What does this fold into?
Amino acid sequence: MNKLLARLKRVPADVVGVDLGASSVKAVRMRKTQDDIVMTAAAILPSPLATNEEGATHVQRPVSLPGALKGRYVSLATTSPDASVKLLSFPGPSDHNQENRILDSLGLANPEDYRISYRVVREGHARTETRVLAVALPMIDANTVLAMFPAGIPAPYSIEVSGLATASTFALTTGIEKNEGSVGLVDFGAECTSLSLFSRGTLALVRRFHMGTYNITQSVCDTLGVDAETAEGIVNDGAFDISQSISDVLSPVVKQIIISRDFVERREDCTISNIYLSGPKVLTNGAIDSIRSALEVDVHPWNPTDGINMTDGCLSKKLEGQEWRLSAAMGACLGTLEQT
It folds into this structure.
């Protein structure tokens, strides 16, 4: 019955992807044609979030999208530092007890407080494991994102964690799933940094670290004695040499990347040959040497729009150099469109 309902459920071929970040909203619109997927519009908008006297975050107004971004459906992404993201392995093929095992493996004290979903990344057989990507998104975070579009059009279609949406963009636009090589992606967000390692076209490890560009900004504040707004500008435009601040903040993350790389190479009997970086130019440039020397692999900056077709004028000059900020919104779209 579930398979029948899935076939009957109409999947949109034109969707808006919205990524609710800590300080802004990133939005893109994509449509699927008979032969391809095309991005038709993109924008970075002010955040609708506000903080009350108790320190709780809420949406103070619905998001108003520009005309070019007003589609019928919106696929949503949110950072949600409190989300639980796990790549689980179970012996043999999937069975009727799988959902219970996934719930137990997530280790949630109060599962009813979460939206929980999973996807079988690799189906097991008699002598191989089934690999499952499971996500538990706090209900409070899901409701916050849904409050951006409380009524009318666009109507919310899906919600996912931003780091995973970026990994989807990476996999789909670079053709990782068709590649026999083994590579990794490090996505530097404002509050979280996500690591995704792929072995022979399949997701082999996913981790999230509670470190992001905010930590770099705070380090710049302390080192240069400037306010947060000035420090954020320095991080975004690279006007000053902040390599020491980047190195100090990245050091513990690089150590965890090494551990993760070694684990995957032993488990999968593979060699991670390339690591790609997504984030502000000054940060990715500063991280390239640190990661390259620590892991002894090729390290490259990654632009999510390089692997997607776009209509003329889709990206404004204001967005040039900031394409990395659109990766999660793109992934939200692609995750929906790839179902058709």
The mean pLDDT is 89. The two ends are 19 Å apart (CA to CA).
